[in-house]
Amino acid sequence: MPQEDFYRIKLLPPYVFEEVNTLKAKLRNQRQDIIDLGMGNPDMPTPAHIVEKLCETAHNPKAHRYSVSRGIIGLRRAMARYYERRFDVKLDPETEIVATLGSKEGFANLAQAITGPGDVILSPDPAYPIHAYGFIIAGGVIEPLPALTPEEYLKGLHDAVARLPKAPRAMVLNYPSNPTAQMVGLDFYKECVALARAHDIIILSDLAYGEIYFDTPPPSIFEVPGAKDIAVEVNSLSKTFAMAGWRVGMAVGNARLIGALARVKSYLDYGAFTPIQVAAVAALDSPQDVIDGIRNIYRERRDVLIDHFAKAGWEMPTPDASMFAWAPIPEKFRDLGSVEFAKLLMERAEVAVAPGLGFGAAGDGHVRIGLVENQQRIRQAARNIKRVLSE
C-alpha cells in the first residue's frame, strides 16, 4: 500500500532535518568525529537525587501498575507549587493542571482537543515544528506569521485578526523561543491576552525554556490578569533538570481547556511510569541551586560559543535564553540556503547544526546551534569552522 494513500501523511511535508541527519549518519559510519550541535538534546546527567527517587520507587511492586492519565495527584500538586514559587501564580491541581508525556505530547493532544476542521491557527514562522503541525494533523489551517522578532510577530497577530474573515481559533506563543532564543516581557503577554479576549481566541503558550535564561527570568502568561480565561501554557522538565528522555511535562491554565486535554488523553494513554512521576516530584521540589547549576552550564557554553565563533569569523547575536544560538548564515555562504550550508559544515568542518528551513520558510537564512557539547568540543567546532570560513 503506497504511503501517499494516507490522508494525514500527505499533509506533512518532507522532514527537512532528515537530509542532514542522513548525511550525519553516513559520515559517522565513515568514522568521522561529528561535533553535533544540531539537536536540542541535553548531554549533562539528571541530578542524582532525582535518579535515586526513581530507583527507590521502582522497587515498590505497586508502582508497576497502570498510572493515571492526567498524572498522579502528588505530581500535579508539585507542579502547582512550582508555578506559585516561580511565578506567584496559583493553580488548582484538580482542574487546572495535567501532567503530560513531555510538552510536545501535551501540545499535540491539546491541538487535537480544540481544533475543528478548517479552524485557523496563528503560528510563528520560524517555530518549533509541533507548533504548526500539531494543528495540521488535527485538521486545522495554519496562518504562518513572520516571527524573526517578537515585535514582528505581535504586529502580525494584530494584522491577521483584522484581515481574516472570521476570528482564528488559537494563537501560538513560544518565549523563550525555539529556535530564535528571543524573550518577551509581560507587556507582550498583556497585549496578546487583550487581543485574544477581545476576539475569543485561545492562546497556547510554550514555556519549555522558562528556566534556561541568562539575565532576566522569563514570565509566565498567567502573570497577566485574565489570562486564565483564554490560555493554556505547556512546560517541561526536559531542559530544566536534564530529563529530556524521561518525557515529563505539564499543561496548565484554563480549566475548560485542561479538561478537554484530559479527556483526549484518557483515550490515549495511562500516563508516565509511576516511578518517573514520583521522581518528577523530587525534581520540581529541588533546591534552587540544582536549577542554577544547570543554567550556569548553558551560560558558560553560550559565552564560549559566541566568543570563539566570532574569532573564527562568524558573528551571531548573544542569546538571552534557551539552549540555542540562532545564527545568521555568513554572507559569503548565504546563497546556499540553510540546508546546503548545514551539509557543508558537516562535510568540511565536521560540525552538525540545524538548518533554519526546518523551522519554517522565514528561518532559511539562519541555522540553529545547540549548546549540547562541552566547552572543549565547542572550541574545537570553532577551529574547524574557522578553516572553512577562511577557504
Describe this structure in words.
This protein is of the alpha/beta class. The chain has two domains: 3-45 and 289-389, Aspartate Aminotransferase, domain 1; 48-286, 3-Layer(aba) Sandwich (Aspartate Aminotransferase, domain 2), CATH 3.40.640.10. 43% of the residues lie in helices and 14% in strands. The protein is built from 13 helices and twelve strands. The chain has helices at 7-10, 16-29, 48-58, 73-87, 102-114, 130-137, 150-163, 186-199, 255-268, 274-284, 288-311, 337-349, 375-389; strands spanning 35-36, 97-100, 120-125, 141-146, 170-174, 202-206, 231-236, 249-253, 324-328, 351-352, 354-355, 366-370. The strands form three sheets. It has a seven-stranded mixed beta sheet with strand order 2-8-7-6-5-3-4, sandwiched between helices. A three-stranded antiparallel beta sheet has the order 9-12-11. Strands 1-10 form a two-stranded parallel ribbon. α5 runs parallel beside α6 and α11 runs parallel beside α13 (375-389). The longest helix is centred in the C-terminal third of the chain and has 24 residues, at 288-311. The protein is globular. The N and C termini lie far apart (48 Å).
CATH superfamily of the largest domain: Type I PLP-dependent aspartate aminotransferase-like (Major domain)
The stretches of 5 or more residues where confidence is low (pLDDT under 50) are: none
Strand pairing plus helix content: what structural class?
A: alpha/beta
The main sheet orders its strands as 2-8-7-6-5-3-4
Beta-strand percentage?
A: 5-15%
Largest sheet: 7 strands, mixed
Secondary structure tally: strands:
12
Under the CATH scheme, the architecture of the largest domain is 3-Layer(aba) Sandwich
Topology pattern, helix = H, strand = E: HHEHHEHEHEHEHEEEHHHEHEEEH
State the helical fraction: 40-55%
Principal-axes shape call: globular
